[in-house]
Structure formats: structure tokens, C-alpha cells
Specification:
2 domains; mainly alpha; 100 residues; binds iron/sulfur cluster
Length: 100
């Protein structure tokens, strides 16, 4: 099954499956399966699925979410890109939100 990269379609699918997602969340909250077993199952599925994902062909999380950067991240990013640490590029500054 191909991975959906179009965020508009992804939102559409998400809306269509809202009831099903709600039921699944309710099931997880009320099931008696130990938390670590659920975590291991999710981890296993994540490993299986993430093998087929090329983040460089997607980049949606960078476009749709605001990365949370820790102190020093901007300087490291700027250095990695050969840019000035004192004055990071505008696009980088715009997306910065201090991590907690
Ligand atoms: S770039 Fe982000 S949204 Fe896209 S596949 Fe990778 S982690 Fe997911």
C-alpha cells in the first residue's frame, strides 16, 4: 500500500475515519492489555511501516508542524548548512519555537 504524502488527502481520510479513530482510542483506554505490550506492538508496526517511508520525498512534518528546538540547535543547524550562527536565515528563525 503506497504511503499517502498529500496532506489534503490525508486530512480527508482522517476526517472520514474520525469515528473509527475515536472508537480505537476508547478501546485503548479501556482495554486490559498492559501498556508495554501496546507500546511494543506500536513500535513493531512503526518499524515495518517506516522502512517504506522516504522522509526526503515528503517533508510534511517540517512544513506542517513547528519543530521544537533546544538551545544550541539553531547554531548546530546553521553550522551544518555553512551559515552564520549569529544570524540564522529568516526561514529558520520563523520556524523556531523554544523547546520545553
Ligand atoms: S517527513 Fe515527516 S510527515 Fe513525512 S514521512 Fe517523514 S516523518 Fe512523516
Amino acid at each position: 500500500m503506497p504511503i499517502e504524502l498529500d496532506m489534503d488527502k490525508f486530512r480527508e481520510y482522517s476526517t472520514e475515519a474520525e469515528d473509527e479513530n475515536w472508537e480505537f482510542r476508547s478501546f485503548l483506554k479501556n482495554c486490559e492489555t498492559p501498556e508495554h505490550e501496546i507500546y511494543n506492538t506500536v513500535r513493531r508496526h512503526f518499524r515495518d511501516v517506516s522502512r517504506d517511508i522516504d522522509c526526503t520525498a515528503c517533508g510534511n512534518c517540517c512544513r506542517e508542524l513547528r519543530p521544537s528546538l533546544q538551545p544550541g540547535d539553531v547554531a548546530r543547524l546553521a553550522r551544518a548548512k555553512g551559515m552564520s550562527e549569529a544570524q540564522p536565515p529568516r526561514g529558520l528563525r520563523r520556524g523556531i519555537r523554544r523547546g520545553r
